[in-house]
Here is the input.
Amino acid sequence: MRYKTLILLVLIVTACAPKADPNLQIQQIVASTLAALPVATSIPVSTPYPLPTPFDLKGLFCEYQFCIGHPVEMAFFDVSAQKNAASPSTYSQGLIATYNGTLFIQMIWQLAPGTTDPQFMFDLILDKNLDTRVGTLEVKLIRNMNVIYTPITSTATSLLPYGAAGAWICGERAFAWKAYSPQAENTKGLFDSAFDRFSCNQ
Here is the structure.
């Protein structure tokens, strides 16, 4: 009997409870539907891709924070490391060379902060017992670098009696370049093509 009374009481209370506002229920349903809708994907940020290298790397030596051109069929090696493996070339000083049966090229560099005249580098790269300057010394300002050039003759080998030497300042370093060749006519072109591709960290 008590059970029936309890059920009857629950039914009466439920029937007498205030009815929910249908507008409020609709608003709640719409809000939950809108919250469940997928959000549009944002436009992805474009990824920058590397541009092609603006110059050919063939025949270009880049090490010790500088680059210089050389004939494609030849490659520079570290002479300092060949002489003494414990003392290779470094940023502050070095000696590299390349050669084949018809051409020899050598390059040196050293720290020379505050120096503007690279002529002292000729004393370092030219061998006074083998090399002789000929013709006139060319002095130019190229890409804000003081550059000097001179043709030379050499008795280092009878196969390569002609040559050229150049020296310049780049940043805090002084550089010198020398070549021996069988023909005098191509030495200026060798230097120009090497120096055209020269760059250094300043």
